[in-house]
Amino acid sequence: MKPNIFFTADHHFGHENIIKFSERPFESLEQMNEELIKRWNERITDGDTVYHLGDMSLGKPDFTKEILDQLNGNIHLIKGNHEGAALTYPKRFASIRDYHELKIDEPENDNGKQKIILFHYAMRTWNGSHRGVWQLYGHSHGTLSDDEMALSIDVGVDCHNFCPISYEEVKELMKKKKWTPPFVPRS
Length: 187
Known about the structure:
With 187 residues, the protein is α/β, with parallel strands linked by helices. The chain has helices at 18-21, 29-43, 61-68, 167-175; strands at 5-8, 49-52, 74-78, 93-97, 99-105, 113-119, 134-137, 152-154, 165-166. The radius of gyration is 17 Å and the shape is globular. It comes from Chryseobacterium glaciei.
């Protein structure tokens, strides 16, 4: 059985203006924070692994620590551009990186692995993009149109009902893409 691996980004805990900037359906900052924690914990158990692709919190360090202590799972942080408060509590994270190349066992693939590039920002091309490597990103809050010819997806909460999404869900989204390998031998 595959480990439960989830991806997410752009929670912006403690950031009142994100409600109007991203047209989030919350009446108040408190409601947003509570709902984001609830939706996270409905999907994530303590044994699960979560890759958070940045912009966890814009609240003060004590507030951010209090939020992080309420979230289930082993959290790996891929730094975004609003990470000051989260970085004051490094022991909450299994790892903290600017960028990560993740390999997941995937029996459906010829080599038995799926490689995934994790970065806060969307890229037009990335290591292995021409070989079926995926890229997951946040930052844009759903404002970038999806490129159906690229194996990349915005995993930010604004795109996924304010919830982390599982590896299996990402895999299903990737299967809908129209991407084809650019260097296919001609017959």
